[in-house]
């Protein structure tokens, strides 16, 4: 099944990067699919800047390959990251939302669970492959 508008949320963690790779495999230049990358990161300015730069370069590379792609960095307001992701998905009319099952930070996995509860669109929670899980 191909989706026309795919949104992937990442926090820069290894699991977020894996969800991004899965989302990338779901979009097709030939079918005119669009990939929206939503970056939600901790409030550390340096980490946010580094991740935004890396993701921006990736989105630019995808655009160079003919994939319609964009990076969105919504402000996390009331409701936390899951609400910001769900709102962005509504704004871009995403057909599906992808998110990693484990993220960075003290509440690992909490965003994906909350997103399943709040989003008004299908959500795919992408687990890390067993051989990439670090205990």
What secondary-structure arrangement, pairings included, does this model have?
Elements: E1 5-10, H1 14-26, E2 34-39, H2 45-64, E3 68-72, H3 80-91, E4 96-100, H4 110-118, E5 123-126
Parallel strand pairs: 1-2, 1-4, 2-3, 4-5
Description of the structure:
The structure is a single chain. With 135 residues, this protein is an alpha/beta fold. It has one domain (5-132): HUPs (Rossmann fold, 3-Layer(aba) Sandwich), CATH 3.40.50.620. 40% of the residues lie in helices and 19% in strands. It is built from four helices and five strands. It has helices at 14-26, 45-64, 80-91, 110-118, and strands at 5-10, 34-39, 68-72, 96-100, 123-126. It has a five-stranded parallel β-sheet with strand order 3-2-1-4-5, with helices on both faces. Helix 3 (80-91) packs across helix 4 (110-118). It is globular, with a radius of gyration of 14 Å. It holds the Pfam family Usp.
Please tell me how large the radius of gyration is. Answer: 14 Å
Shape: globular
Give the rounded overall mean pLDDT: 82
CATH architecture classification: 3-Layer(aba) Sandwich
- Poorly predicted ranges: none
At the fourth level of CATH, the homologous superfamily is HUPs
Family: Belongs to the universal stress protein A family.
Domain UspA: 2-127
Protein name: Universal stress protein
Organism: Kineosporia corallincola
Question: Which key phrases capture this entry?
Answer:
single chain, 135 residues, alpha/beta, Rossmann fold, 5-stranded parallel sheet, 19% strand, globular
Concise overview:
With 135 residues, the chain is of the alpha/beta class.
């Amino acid at each position: 099944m191909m989706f026309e508008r795919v949104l992937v949320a990442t926090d820069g963690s290894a699991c977020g990067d894996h969800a991004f790779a899965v989302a990338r495999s779901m979009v097709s230049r030939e079918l005119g699919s669009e990939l929206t990358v939503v970056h939600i990161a901790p409030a550390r300015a340096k980490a946010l800047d580094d991740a935004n730069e890396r993701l921006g370069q990736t989105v630019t590379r995808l655009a160079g390959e003919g994939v319609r792609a964009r990076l969105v960095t919504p402000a996390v307001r009331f409701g936390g990251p899951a609400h910001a992701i769900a709102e962005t998905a509504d704004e871009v009319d995403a057909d599906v939302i992808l998110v990693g099952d484990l993220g960075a930070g003290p509440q690992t996995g909490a965003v994906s669970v909350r997103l399943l509860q709040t989003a008004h669109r299908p959500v795919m929670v992408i687990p890390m492959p067993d051989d990439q899980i670090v205990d």
